[in-house]
Write a structure and sequence with these properties.
A seven-stranded mixed sheet has the order 5-4-3-6-9-14-15, with helices on both faces. The protein is globular and about 65 Å long. It is 43% helix and 16% strand. The protein contains eleven helices and 15 strands. The chain has 348 residues and is α/β, with parallel strands linked by helices. A hairpin with a 2-residue loop joins β14 and β15. Bound molecules: 5-S-methyl-1-O-phosphono-5-thio-D-ribulose (MRU). The site of 5-S-methyl-1-O-phosphono-5-thio-D-ribulose has 18 residues, from α2 and β8. The site of 5-S-methyl-1-O-phosphono-5-thio-D-ribulose (MRU) has 18 residues, from α2 and β8.
């Protein structure tokens, strides 16, 4: 079985969610009990191993898992890695138990690699911050949730802020609440509080006045998919921050493992952006409030209101100051520099 911390219940409760088969994991991914690009890859790989260990059809499980959510490319990277290990072992030994063990080993190795990548991204990211803003005392604005909840290690963008905090160089972490599902308020604030960081929560709408007041030194976000041209898909609300950052001459930095770069997606327009149910916008669905609406939450809009609810948006490369990966930073962000980075990472 696969045991996950149910992220839909945070910060009110720390509750484990036990998945005994791949369909249960697919549901956990769809409901965002497990979410965030790197950990989706890790969970997907473990899901394939789970199907193999339990004797289910591994290819069926892999297809269901990788299509559970469309935008984060890490999910299919993780699923395919475990599936390939399973297939190779089966072809070599003809033994289902050995093939299942190979899938599990691949999942564990991805989990370990992600933790290592996280530590390296934190170091590269902090070095970049210090280069861009010598003197320290960084005031960083972040969006969505990119800490240890989404990673085998300490995360992506959040890991950089955490490294700055540990070095005494983080003056403040500004946390966007991240409507509609409040990953910033529920999860990033939870992680920042546990880490003892100086943090302040703001509504997404308040970011503009914060920039105008000169209170933001850098924006640090994660990514769900980076196209070959450097376009970055991340939680909806990231693109407006990039526009604000450019207008206010503030660096806009994306932190993501190399597995988030997808050479098979040529540009931003080719990235499939997940559309989520309208009730996430028309109702408050936080777990700690009593439930009454069609989606299980409290209605905050007239019944029957249509909602536009893309889970992600795409920031064009020209608005991204740098992409920080475990292999180093790419700046300026160009297709050539990203291709070179991917090639270097394959050689390691
Ligand atoms: O819909 P979510 O909560 O899965 O969206 C997650 C994000 O957008 C994160 O910023 C992204 O996955 C990067 S996590 C390191």
């Amino acid at each position: 079985m696969l045991v996950l911390l149910d992220q839909t219940r945070l910060p009110a409760e720390e509750v484990e969610l036990v998945c005994t088969d791949a369909p249960a994991l697919v549901e956990a991914i769809r409901s965002l009990a497990v979410r965030g690009a790197p950990v989706l890859g890790i969970a997907g790989a473990y899901g394939v191993a789970l199907a193999a260990v339990r004797g289910f059809d591994v290819a069926d499980a892999a297809r269901a898992l990788e299509s559970a959510r469309p935008t984060a490319v890490n999910l299919s990277v993780g699923v395919r890695r475990a599936e390939a290990a399973h297939q190779a072992a089966l072809a070599k030994t003809g033994d289902a138990t050995e093939a299942a063990a190979a899938a599990l080993a691949a999942a564990r190795s991805l989990h370990r690699q992600d933790a290592e990548a996280s530590a390296r991204m934190a170091a590269h990211g902090l070095a970049l911050l210090d280069e861009l803003m010598p003197g320290g005392g960084h005031r960083i604005l972040t969006h969505c949730n990119t800490g240890s909840l989404v990673s085998g290690g300490e995360g992506t963008a959040f890991a950089v802020a955490l490294a700055a905090h540990r070095e005494g160089r983080l003056r403040r972490l500004w946390v966007d609440e991240t409507r509609p599902l409040l990953q910033g308020a529920r999860l990033t604030a939870y992680e920042a509080a546990r880490s003892g960081m100086a943090y302040t929560l703001l509504t997404d709408n308040a970011a503009g006045s914060l920039f105008a007041a000169g209170e933001v030194d850098a924006v640090l976000i994660g990514a769900d998919r980076i196209a070959a041209d450097g376009s970055v898909a991340n939680k909806v609300g990231s693109y407006p921050l990039a526009v604000l950052a450019r207008y206010h001459h503030v660096p806009f930095i994306v932190v993501a493992p190399v597995t988030t770069v997808d050479p098979d997606t040529p540009d931003g327009a080719s990235i499939e952006v997940e559309q989520r149910p309208g009730f996430e916008v028309t109702e408050v669905t936080a777990p700690q409030v009593p439930v009454t609406g069609a989606g299980g939450g409290i209605p905050v809009a007239p019944l029957g209101t249509q909602a536009y609810n893309p889970a992600f948006d795409v920031t064009p490369p020209e608005l991204v100051t740098a992409i920080v990966t475990e292999e180093g930073a790419v700046s300026p962000v160009t297709a050539e520099a990203l291709a070179e980075l991917c090639a270097r990472s394959r050689q390691v």
